[in-house]
Structure formats: C-alpha cells, structure tokens
Write a structure and sequence with these properties.
By secondary structure, the protein is of the alpha/beta class. Helix content is 31%, strand content 26%. The longest helix has 14 residues. The structure holds uridine-diphosphate-N-acetylglucosamine.
Amino acid sequence: MDKIAIKGGKPLSGRIEIAGAKNACLTLMPAALLTDETLELTNAPRLADIETMTKLLVSLGVAVELSEQGRRLALRANALESTLAHYEIVRRMRASILVLGPLLARHGHATVSLPGGCAIGARPVDLHLKGLEAMGADLELKDGYIHAKAPTGLTGATIEFPFVSVGATENLLMAATLAKGVTVLKNAAREPEIVDLARCLRKMGAEIDGDGEDTIEIEGVDRLKGCTHRVLADRIELGTYMIAPAIAGGSVEMVGGKRRLVASLIEKLEEANISVEDTDDGILVSRTNGPVGALDVSTAPYPGFPTDLQAQMMSMLCLADGVSRVEETIFENRFMHAPELLRMGAKIDVQGGTAVVTGVEKLRGAPVMATDLRASVSLILAGLAAEGETFVNRVYHLDRGYEQLEEKLRGCGVDIERIKE
Ligand code: UD1
C-alpha cells in the first residue's frame, strides 16, 4: 500500500487551488436519478469517492460521461437497468445511501445495501428510513439490505428530525421533489452542500423554499428536467489547507476560497493569532509571528465548527501555547488521530468526547497511520510542522477526499512524496 513521506519543519509559501466539494458532488450525482434528462456537473473533484459513486450509478444503468479531465460529469438516467445498490459498492462509501430517496421517488422501488464508510462511530441511517416511511414508503430490512417500495409514489409529509443529519436531509429533500404534495423538513441540516443541492434541484424544476435555514419546504412536482450545475468549493479541503500555514508557519493563498464557507474556522484561527485576509482570488492565511494560541473548540452542525475539521484543528493545537480542549459532539469515535499524534510527541488526553491538548514545542516525524479520511490528513498537517520525516500509511483514505494533495503542498515548498509499494 502506498505511503506519503514528508520532511517537515519548513514554513509554507504559495497558492493552493481549491477543488469542487466532494460532499456536494456526492449528493448532486444521485440527483441525476430524479430525471430522464442529462444532469451536467462542472467543477467536479477528481477523487476516489466520486469514482465509487460513478460506479454505483453506472451499475444502476445511468450513463456517465466524463470530460475536461474528469471535472465535467454528464449523468443521464433515462434507461435504468436496476434499482439495486449492491453491498460491494455501498460498503466502500456511506454516501451511497443517497441513491435511496431518488430511486424510490422516481421508480417506486429500490433495494440498497446498508452502508459502510469511515470507521467513525455507528453512523446508522434510521433518520433516512423513518423519513421515507413518513412519506408512505414500505421498508423492510433483510440480509443487510433495505428493501423499499412505494408503488403509488411518495406523499409529502412533515418530518421533524430529532437531531441534525446532513445525509438524511439530502435524501429526503431529493425524494420530496417528486412526492405528491408538500413536504416540510424541520430541524434540517443547513450545510452549504444542502443549499448547493437545493439550487441544482430548483434548476431541474423543483419547488424548494428555506434551504440554508432549519425548515425546508418542498412542493412535489410531476417531473424534473436536466440542467448544468457548478459544484461549489470544498470548504473542508479549504479549511484543511488553511490550517497548513497555521501549523507550519508561512503564508498561503487559497484560490477560490470563500470566507463565508469557513466562518467558524476563521473565528478560531483568528483567536489563535493566525491572520486571514481576503484577496482578489480567495483567502490568504498567514502565521508570521509567534506560536498559535491555545483555544477551546466544539464541533457542531453548520454554521458551527465542522466535525470534518476537528482532527486537523487538533494537530494545530498540539503546537499551541497552552492547553486546549477539543470536544467532538457529532461522532462518538472520532479521535483516532490522537494516539497517532502522541507517537509524534503530542500531549493529548482523551476523556470521552473531549480531548485535552497540551501544546508542546516540537513534534517529531514518525511512521503513523489513520483509519479515516480527515484523521489521515491531520497527520499530514502534523508532518508539515514536525522535525524529521513523517510517513503516513494507508494513503487510500487521503485519495478519497484530497485531489493532488502532494502536488498542492509541493507547490508551497513542502518536501513531500508518495512512496509506491
Ligand atoms: C455528512 C458528511 C460527513 C460529515 C457529516 C457531518 C457527506 C458525504 N458526508 O455525513 O463528511 O462528517 O455529514 O457533518 O456529506 N445519524 C443517525 N441516524 C441517521 C443519520 C445520522 O444517528 O439516520 C447520526 C450519525 O451517526 C452522526 C450524526 O447523526 O452521529 C450526523 O450524521 P450525518 O449528518 O447524517 O452525517 P452524514 O450525512 O453521514
């Protein structure tokens, strides 16, 4: 298995181009199942997870054409061959569950394997299923598969989520576009990826109000049409690279970065004495004087601090001046990076859902590995600042979510290479 080697300890300087959002693209692609016309997505990121979603859609009979080196996807679901999402594909990526709502809404039946995905806690899909049931679907769980039927179509319903779920909001939002009558989603997720999905669905002819707020109202229509939609910028990739100069020193411009996508991170970076300025092309992040300040951070649904940036933030706080507390409230098992950071000389004490991080003066390079995407990239960030060489194993996690990671960091002067094994 490939690994990445980093010789750390040098400040960064350069520009990084921010790609289209993985998580937006992964929910926009299944939206193609809602119409027999072509959905064209531009600014798609080139990532293993996007390939997995492509494979899943192709296995259902969706015609997928790639152009512009994989940045433009044309998806056409006019002759579906199957409504079965097989375990072999679904187990690789939890977002596969997002085909369930669209398949059911347009075809009246679907069989979807229960998902796998990152090893960050139990991550059930009960909210997706309860919502579809409230819309009249008949569901049965058998042999690891969800067998779903709605022979006469779905019906609008009022669904109040007991807690915020991005995936459940997306699945039900898509399903509701073709349901009979009005669906109201209460305590809905407000993530920018939801707003991007709603914008695309509106272009396809859907009637949606309230996206970006906690109550979304959808009036079902008889059919949707095709459209062309540009995937929004990846705020997690953006946030990850914003933390790079904060941890290693120096100054990096994030091209295509938008302040409003990462406001909660900027607040924390500024609290830690990192400068964030707007430029003509994006955002410039610099740490030029002194160590980062210690701080407390707690993850929360958008607009709160993203759980997908928690690991990267923890890497930065390992070198902060003082004691920080990092609280994870979304996933119950998302501190897998902590023991690896300890191997690099960090001081972290995990107590349940909180990690107490005592800043150290230096991290040292070490062989490390992580079992999920964001934990892996947090180790890359730590490697940027560490003395000596860091080897990050299990690189396939990184390839799921970071396009051309080595090239982007090399462009900022980082000594980084992929070792093929
Ligand atoms: C999405 C993102 C992921 C991010 C997460 C939270 C994609 C492809 N993935 O994941 O990167 O970390 O949002 O911002 O967009 N839950 C249930 N029952 C459900 C659904 C969720 O208990 O039916 C729980 C989960 O276990 C978790 C919490 O709700 O503890 C939030 O999960 P959710 O927002 O659904 O995350 P995903 O959509 O899977």
